[in-house]
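Hypothesis: this fold can be encoded by more than one sequence.
Test: take the structure tokens below, design a sequence, compare later.
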């Protein structure tokens, strides 16, 4: 009953009021999905940073205590790679917009740019994240030599490849299912707001 009355009021209202309602409804929808996405990105970034903070002392220990030169070199390079990952993630985070300092349209422009930066970050994950990690872990594994360890090296390499493929696919899925729909909603809202 109440729903029918609301529909009648909606249908009898002037077009200008309908446009305002549509705009505010779209704004609330976009803001809700952005809040959820920002939480996911913050969680992902925190997990990456924790992994690096935990990994640095471990690989520093390996670099100091393990006698194999290739393992020492790989350990030091893994530390540098971990620091690079943190820098890359934090540099993307710098572009996160603040909803409190701009007009809503400026906030949407900045949010769209931030999401595009996140999309580029995830689209290029193969080159700055996966391939360096796989290469360095492979060098680390080869440190003690191959003699008598070939089956173990093959298993570890196969495990690393499986993790790399899963990481790549998860990032591509995140772009397709999380970032692209939000970018489309933001574009639609920007278009509506620019017309009004």
């Amino acid at each position: 009953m109440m729903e029918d009355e609301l529909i009648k009021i909606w249908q009898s209202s002037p077009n200008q009021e309908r446009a305002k309602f549509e705009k505010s409804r779209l704004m609330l929808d976009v803001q809700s999905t952005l809040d959820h996405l920002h939480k996911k990105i913050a969680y992902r970034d925190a997990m990456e940073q924790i992994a690096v903070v935990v990994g640095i002392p471990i690989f520093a220990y390996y670099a100091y205590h393990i006698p194999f030169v290739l393992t020492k070199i790989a350990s030091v390079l893994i530390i540098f790679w971990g620091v690079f990952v943190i820098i890359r993630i934090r540099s993307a985070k710098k572009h996160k917009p603040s909803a409190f300092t701009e007009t809503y349209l400026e906030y949407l422009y900045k949010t769209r740019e931030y999401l595009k930066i996140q999309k580029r970050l995830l689209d290029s994950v193969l080159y700055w994240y996966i391939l360096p990690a796989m290469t360095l872990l492979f060098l680390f594994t080869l440190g003690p030599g191959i003699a008598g360890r070939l089956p173990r090296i093959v298993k570890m390499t196969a495990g690393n490849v499986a993790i790399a493929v899963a990481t790549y696919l998860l990032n591509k899925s995140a772009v397709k299912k999380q970032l692209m729909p939000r970018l489309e909603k933001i574009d639609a809202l920007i278009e509506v707001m620019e017309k009004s």
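Residues 19-195 form one domain. The first helix runs from residue 2 to 12.
Hypothesis status: open.
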